[in-house]
Amino acid sequence: MKKTFANIKKVYNYGKKYRKALYLEAMGSLIGIALEIAVPIIIAKQTVLLTSNLWNQLIIMSLVLLLVDFASGLKTVLIRKNTQKFYVGVTEKMQNELSHEVLRIQQKDLDNSSSGVFVQRLTSDVDELSNLFTVGFGRVVGILSSLGAFISVFIINKIVFVFYFAVSIIFTILNLVKYKKYSEKDREKRKVNERVIGLTSELVRGTRDVKMLNAKESFIDKLNEVIKEKNRKHIQMRNIDIKYNLIYDLLLGFFEFILMVLFVYLITRNLLTLPMALALYSYRYKVMTNLMYDVSLLIEEVNQFNISFDRVFAIFDGITFRKEKFGKKHLSKIKGDFEFRNVDFSYENGLKVLDGISFKVKANTTVGFVGESGSGKTTIFNLLCKMYDVSKGEILIDGTNINELDEDSLRGNITIIGQSPYIFNMSIFDNMKLVKSSVTLDEVKKACRLACLDEFIESLPDKYDSVIGEGGVNLSGGQKQRLAIARALIQKTEIILFDEATSALDNVTQSRIQDAINNLKNEYTIMIIAHRFSTILNCDNIFFIDKGRIIASGTHDELLKSCKPYKKLYLSEIKKQK
């Protein structure tokens, strides 16, 4: 219970701005409680007045009931309007901050988790946390209303009170047992559902690859297997629900029969009047079943809340999903000098990718990295952007260890254009605004012209307002890379990293992109991982990497003379082109 209150307090902090709405909701709920307690007694008094022919008093009592109806309407407006206001406010703020936290998670932890893990926590789990302040609050109101009805029953007849109290205890215990079993299955179902969401997301994003690999059946079989597992958990939960609801219905019928026998006994013994018996009968569901129902549902809501709390705050706490760490030093403008000093790096499988690698790059120079696939070239870029942390050694930018720099100093000054750049499901212009919110259409057109993409865009019906689909699905591989290059030109960072960024381009376009890169020379520090040697022929310096080590460096002509593996790789590409 202590843990639950601590959790509630944490979530409430996200809705402090909307606490007025919560107070108004509480006011409406208090009106509702008073009405639910008073109405049966008023109706009972009406019955007495009607049978006694006291018409004047009956009219007054009817006017009282009319006022009750108005109060009931006011109560409904206060609760519904303010409930939604608080719910939306909490959900919006939590999802916003949770999105920021997801983007702070270390890349290796993101790599080891499916997208479904985060999608469900960002959506349904956050909704569940907000629900405790809306639906859960309603349960508390129902319980208070039932307790008020219990007090009324106690005042009217203590024998009936004892009966109602005993029945409500029996039903409450029954539901506690039910929801304990139910919540255990729910935890299992949520884990499976994360896998369903993850696979579904991969199906949508990877549709083309699934088709081209002729893997439709095997992928669908895998998805169906997980869906069936989720459905099995759902059926197990429903079976628990059905079983206990049947027991509940049978017991309810039995207890209602006992209640009628009890009323007959009390009336015939002059221990209860008929009008008061009618009032007590009106309370039967509120005290005999509603109390149990609201208590058990509140317990269920609290269980759901705590499950979702653990899942959501596992992202916040930085333990389950570790957060990226940056320094506090801020550099508003960097020159672009950087250095690797004896850097080692291994992924979590223990395989060493970089082994004591050291090199320097001067500002405003263009350097290339060449080597066989898997030699560690892309890893160098990932470490420079601090997507991963070095295992040993240090990386310096302008003489400062990157671990001392804040995030903006580092990533605000580096742009990386990868082999498969992610293009967002929005217009071309909006993709550009992501990196510079104040960008103008003229700036976008200029960048796209340099990236050799302007003719294609102008051929589209909506031109720069064209929506290009999730992941740039409506673009070819070369078009996506050119758009990513244009996006980098908009960002105008001091360091630009090209990770085989021209690999998907035809020879003509690749040549034009090479011209664009050459136009950037001497103004930016440019690093290029080469898939095609033509992209690095004019580099100021080229590093040849083999098995995580730099075994040679120099210009293209120098390496042809001094490095046999480099010459062999170069001649192999020329042979393929022929």
List SSEs in N-to-C order. Answer: HHHHHHHHHHHEEEHEEHEHHHHEHEEEHH
Q: Supply the CATH architecture of the largest domain.
A: Up-down Bundle
- The CATH topology label of the largest domain is ABC transporter transmembrane region fold
User: How many angstroms does the end-to-end distance come to?
Assistant: 75 Å
Helicity range? 55-70%
Tally of separate domains = 3
Using the coordinates above, name the CATH class of the largest domain. Mainly Alpha
Major sheet: 6 strands, mixed
Number of helices: 20
Mean pLDDT: 77
Q: Give the tally of β-strands.
A: 10
| Secondary-structure content class | alpha/beta
Strand content range = 5-15%
The global form is elongated
Give me the CATH superfamily of the largest domain. ABC transporter type 1, transmembrane domain
The Cα radius of gyration reads 35 Å
